[in-house]
Structure formats: structure tokens, C-alpha cells
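ok posting inputs for the 6-O-phosphono-alpha-D-glucopyranose job
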Amino acid sequence: DAAEKGGYEHYMRKEIHEQPVALRQTLSGRIDIERGDADLDVSFPQGYLESLEEIQLVACGTSYYASLYAARLLEQFADVRTTVEIASEYTFDGGRDPWRTLVIAVTQSGETADTLGAIRRAGGAGARTLAVTNTLGSSVTRETEDSLFIRAGPEIGVAATKTFASQVTTLALLAVEIGRKRGTLAATDARAVLENLRELPGAVQQVLDEEARVLEGAERFVDADAFFFVGRQFGYPVALEGALKLKEIAYDHAEGFAAGELKHGPLALVTGETPVLSVLTEGARPGETLNNVTEAQTRAAPAIGVTDGTVETDSLDLALEVSEIGHMTPLVANIYFQLFAYHIADLQGRSIDKPRNLAKSVTVE
Ligand code: G6P
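and the output
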């Protein structure tokens, strides 16, 4: 067991630190800078992507938040209506021609019963189906027409970490490919996205190198009453995912909010004992988000922000830096939230790899 953890005390911390390698695997051989295109091993029928009317993503837990991130990329690059649904809530409504709706099951394990149920309903109604998974030969790959592997390598910790980054990255590549096929993403724009993806592993490594600062922050705030995560645009799913990590492994009260929604209710919960963690980077409307954070600070909340230097962050209690890599910057910010949840949980002596009441994959609906 100790050998498998490679010197780390927990699989979760090992898996957080594996992200640069996992992301390189995810991207390997899939970027064609010259053509300005992604090269995925899925062959859709001739003309299928061009005639696509809608994309629906179905998923649970962390995979659901990865899907929320990816849906924005799909809409922007491929100019196709994209919805995301919690798998257990899903019913298929595919319009007049169900085949022109591509339903994508996003699932690390490929075994989540809710997600399998949803994709079965979609397939049964005549939609085209695709699995985005980490697990070769998993059940979802037998339920869908095509499979796309995120190649993150085995993830043992119950709380998903490296697979979130690899899911978003794989779906970003898919968004580029669909956008190129449909003619909605110009080669120069695609090249810029692909360059950002190429820079992603290095940007993640820079965050990992700052772990000591995250530990200091965790020590400072470990006794907080609750933790609020806020973000806009691509920062919003990252806020939701950041809060989920804390709930799962630290058992602390944590919530993710769209930053603009703070003033529509959650602000009533804010006190000097509720740190607010925010995404203040490219792709997450940092200026507006900072205004919302300031409103929380006015109510005495300590503020921790992840910044790429776009906005002035002197007023924060703790500013954590990331490199700006376009749409993928909030994904890099998420690594700080993973480390923060890990250290908050570790300081409290939690059972990090096997949190109470949770399972790595849930095979009941
Ligand atoms: C469980 C795990 C979560 C995971 C979710 C979806 O609840 O504890 O970490 O995000 O299942 O799993 P999947 O394998 O479908 O991505």
C-alpha cells in the first residue's frame, strides 16, 4: 500500500500531484497545431457533426461539474446548443430527429448506475451516444456507440481529482474538433486553444509547486464555520467542484455559488468565520467577481482568491497565483482548491481516501 502511494500519505495527494503527467497523457497525439485541429480517435459518421442540432451531457458528482465547464467550451467553439443534466434527473427530449442530438455520458468509472440509466434512455429514444470515461471496457463503453478515453490513469481516492482535469481537457479537444468540422472555429482560434491546452500541464505544475502556501492558508482557516466558493463563467463549475471536495473529504460545510448570486441570498450567511474562495482569472470575469468578493469582505469574511494578475488583489487575505492560459485558466485555479480541501481535511485527521458514507463508484440508482 505504502509503495503504491509512492511516498505520499494519501492517494488523493498523489493523484493531485499526478495531474501534469495525467494531462500529458490525455493530450498525447491529440493536438495537431499545424492544421489547427484536435485528433481524437472517434469517427462519427460522415456529415454527422455538421448536422448536429444539440449536445446533451449527462453525469454525476465531479463529472457533472466537469461537464458544466465543458458545455461552455462546446457552445463557444462548436456553436451548438449544449445542455448538462444530472444523470439521475435526466429524461430524453430530442426534438423531431433524436439522432441529431449527441448525448455524452461523462463518467470516470464508467459504472455509475445513474449515468448508465440516463445514457440507456437516450440511446433507447434514438439519440447518438458517446462515453467519455477513464475506464477501458467499463459498462458505459458497452452502452454507447463510441467511447473517448480521458487517459488519466487509475484513480483510487474516492474524491475525484486528476480525472476532473482530464475530463475537461478531453471534452475541450472534442469541442475543438466539432467546431472545426462545423466551420464555427477558425484555424487560428483553434490553434490558440490548442496552445493553451499544451501549456496546461506546466501551469498545473506551477500550482503544485506552491503547495506550502496553500497549507499555510489551510492552517489559518481550518476552524472556519463554513467555506463559500464563488466564480463566474468557467469559474462557476470550479467553485462548485471546490466546495464538493471540501464536503467530501473534510465534512465541512461548503457551498459553491455563482459569484453574482451572493447578493441574492447567500450573503446572509456570510460572517467573519466564513472564508470566501474565488476564481479571479481570465475566463471567469475577474473584475465583477472581485466586486462580489468585496461585498463579502465588507461583512467581515476573509477572502482567498486565485488570480492570474488580471485584477488588483492587494485587498485579499490570501492571493494564489496561476498563469493565464485562456479558457483553461479556471481549470488551473481548481488545483488550488483541491490542495486546500486536502490540507483542511488532513489537518482534521479525516479519512481522506475513503470518506465516510461515500463510494468511488455508485452502482445503485
Ligand atoms: C461517486 C464518487 C464521486 C464521483 C461520482 C461520479 O459519487 O464518490 O467522486 O464524482 O460518483 O462518478 P463517475 O465514475 O461516474 O465519474
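notes: The CA atoms of residues 37 and 252 lie 43 Å apart. The pocket of 6-O-phosphono-alpha-D-glucopyranose is lined by residues 60-63, 107-109, 112, 115, 158-160, 358, 360-362 (CB under 6 Å).
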